[in-house]
Write a structure and sequence with these properties.
The chain is an alpha/beta fold. The chain contains twelve helices and 20 strands.
């Protein structure tokens, strides 16, 4: 039995889908434990190319249970759409389950999010309603998937909350919703999804007690954590390893391994500080033109990602708050054409070197301390053994391990499942 948690070590978009898909071959269950459909995990395997936003990546392994767990906010319409797309490519979705405690993301959450980005402080959200669904969870006005199993109670809940929701929508100049509209949606969702809804604490703990291999899949990355990230330019949940246990209801002592996934460089979507960000054409070598599945455009938004050199203080901070036991470095092949490669190995703030992660405001002000390394100018995409990598790649990996204090166990050299070096 093993319990593994996999999380992002940067701003998201690190390549988690690829690594989860690879690791799922040994898993009995894969669990998404936070977030919603505001980000995507891209998977390329023998069954096709998939951009998953709500469905755990373990769905592709025959017999593996896939659980959208407590801690998530789930738009049922998006989930049904995603399941239909996956099924259309001859993937069995019969083992997809939903936590009864997961929050239902409603149409009015999307409307409020769109209005909020226009009228409030813009932080570059995906306008998918994620923050407003989490806000309703905290205000105790959210509906959960358990409510779809008792439609009479569901109707009563809707009647109690819609007055306040419509007052907020009206005050912001948005579209209002009738109680009947929302109730009819719930009836439809209950018909389509009730058979997938499970009591999550027993579901997960029974699997642990049966010595099953379980992988917990995080969304986004450490720098987007609501408490520990670049607030306010963050997501509305906790994409850190400890939250897998918190949201799932099992002891944190049961976690055996924590895998941090990082890119060989840095990328971000949305607003916020980005110390190593490149300007203009300098980033074109990383980006691609959007024609390839691993080009640097958001899986959810399609927006061109902000790109920069590798920032090791961020990786070390992520390792500190998560407790990585192993690191996966993705997209090392994107550096194949560079003569020289810069790596940030520290920050100066107000002219003094610091040894901590500063506030978001100060992160705008830091001066990155760079180390310049020799590029390898070699195609790495066909290499499958660490020993066969150019010495310059090994030096790059060694610098990461030395600075962060964690072994690199996986190296991605392309987008497909098999494009990987395992140490």
């Amino acid at each position: 039995m093993s319990v593994t948690v996999l999380v992002g070590a940067q701003f998201g978009d690190e390549g988690k889908g690829k690594i989860v898909d690879y690791l799922a071959s040994d898993m009995d269950m894969v669990v998404r434990f936070q977030g919603g459909d505001n980000a995507g995990h891209t998977v390329v395997n023998e069954k096709g190319v998939f951009k998953l936003h709500l469905v755990p990546c373990g769905i592709f392994k025959d017999g593996c249970k896939a659980l959208a767990n407590t801690g998530m906010v789930i738009n049922p319409d998006e989930l049904l759409k995603e399941l239909s797309e996956i099924s259309s490519q001859n993937v069995d979705t019969g083992n997809m389950f939903i936590s009864s405690r997961a929050v239902i993301l409603m149409p009015y959450h999307i409307e409020l999010d769109s209005l909020g980005e226009k009228t409030g402080i813009s932080i570059g959200t995906t306008k998918r309603g994620i923050g407003y669904a989490y806000a309703d969870r905290s205000r105790r006005t959210a509906l959960r998937f358990e409510d779809l199993l008792d439609l009479d109670y569901c109707r009563t809940r809707i009647a109690k909350i819609m007055g306040g929701i419509n007052a907020e929508l009206k005050a912001k100049g948005g579209k209002t919703f009738t109680e009947e509209e929302i109730y009819d949606k719930c009836v439809f969702w209950a018909e389509k999804l009730a058979s997938r809804i499970v009591e999550p604490v027993s579901f997960v703990n029974n699997a642990i007690n049966k010595n099953e291999n379980i992988l917990f899949e995080g969304q986004l990355g450490a720098m987007k954590d609501i408490d520990l990230g670049i607030y306010p330019y963050v997501t509305s949940s906790n994409p850190v390893a400890a939250y897998a246990a918190v949201s799932s209801g099992f002891p944190i002592s049961k976690i055996d391994e924590i895998v941090g996934v990082m890119k060989a460089f840095t990328s971000a979507v949305g607003d916020g500080p980005f110390p190593t960000e490149m300007e203009g054409a300098e980033a074109d070598g990383f980006r691609g033109d959007g024609k390839n599945v691993d080009d640097e455009f958001g899986a959810r938004t399609g927006r061109a990602r902000r790109l920069g050199w590798l920032d090791l203080p961020i990786i070390k901070f992520a390792a500190t708050i998560n407790g990585f036991t192993k690191i996966a470095v993705c997209k090392i092949d994107k550096l194949d054409t560079y003569d020289e490669i810069k790596v940030c190995v520290g920050y100066k703030l107000n002219g003094k070197e610091i040894d901590y992660m500063p506030t978001s405001r100060d992160l705008y002000k830091v001066e990155p301390i760079y180390r310049t390394m020799k590029g390898w100018k070699t195609d790495t995409t066909k290499i499958r053994r660490y020993e066969d990598l150019p010495d310059e790649v090994k030096d790059y990996i060694s610098l990461i391990e030395t600075y962060v204090g964690v072994k690199v166990g996986y190296i991605g050299v392309g987008p497909a499942r098999e494009d990987i070096i395992v140490r």
